[in-house]
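To: structure subgroup
Subject: Chain for Friday's discussion

All,

I'm putting the inputs and outputs inline so they're searchable in the archive.
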Amino acid sequence: MNFGESLTIQALRHPNKIAIEDDFKSITYKELNLRANRLALGLLDCGLKKGSIVGQFQGNTSEHIELIYALAKTGMIRMPINPRAQREEILNTINMLEPQALVFDSQFAEIVASLKSELKCPLFIYE
């Protein structure tokens, strides 16, 4: 069993139990599993596949957790990027590992836009 399968099992065992809760919303295991599955299919539709490296530049959000599960379900490799890193560290990390995609959220849109022309990354996914 892999990490992605563990969510599927929890969704079957405890579909209505809260999996993620923050100040704004609560997500059940069933909802989290459905969202992670949709995201996994979306990543595959973008041409990514098992073994693809996907940079993750997100804050501490439910979408962050959804992406972790989606990547596990597809067998893609997660490359976390430190949200507190300085511009040069972000640039060097991405260009050294050359991910096939970079997933980022609104709080990092400005920095990604400023780095985009310098990054060795063919696909940018704004979540």
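Points worth raising on Friday:
The helical segments are 3-13, 29-45, 62-74, 87-97, 109-115.
The domain at 3-126 is CATH 3.40.50.980 (Rossmann fold).

D.
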